[in-house]
Write a structure and sequence with these properties.
- There is one protein chain.
- The protein has 119 residues and is of the alpha+beta class.
- The chain has one domain.
- It is 25% helix and 28% strand.
- It has a five-stranded antiparallel β-sheet with strand order 4-2-1-3-5.
- Strand 1 (15-24) and strand 2 form a beta hairpin.
- The longest helix is centred in the middle third of the chain and has 14 residues, at 63-76.
Length: 119
């Protein structure tokens, strides 16, 4: 989605930058960084062969700030890019490693305790 269209959807809602671990029964595991207004709804439509677990979440009513943060992460960590075996919406925003990305998140980020995660 283009920046202007995404910002127009804010309508007073809190925007969320998320980092999730995506994994499959076939032992594939990777990380995805993205933005949304509702994380659960965002991944209700993820492929049936993938599961996900939230690692970190940063929220703000300043949607432009969240948009810019996501773009900076994608630019700065492009060298860690990962291409999932199966395509899904957002498959181009995936990473093989996450430690450096988590370390780069701003103060105020809510970190969940990683489970079965190699970070």
């Amino acid at each position: 989605m283009k920046r202007a269209a995404w910002l127009a959807q804010q309508r007073g809602r809190k925007a969320v930058l998320y980092v999730i671990r995506v994994y499959s029964k076939e032992e594939e595991a990777f990380y995805k960084v993205g933005i949304t207004y509702n994380l659960a709804a965002r991944f209700r439509r993820i492929r049936a062969d993938y599961h996900w677990r939230t690692l970190a979440r940063y929220s703000s009513y300043r949607a432009e700030h969240i948009w810019n943060l996501e773009q900076a992460i994608h630019r700065d960590f492009a060298h860690l890019s990962y291409s999932p075996a199966a395509s899904f919406s957002g498959h181009t925003e995936c990473y093989a490693e996450v430690k450096a990305i988590l370390a780069a998140l701003p103060a105020g980020t809510f970190f969940l305790k990683p489970v079965n995660c190699d970070i």
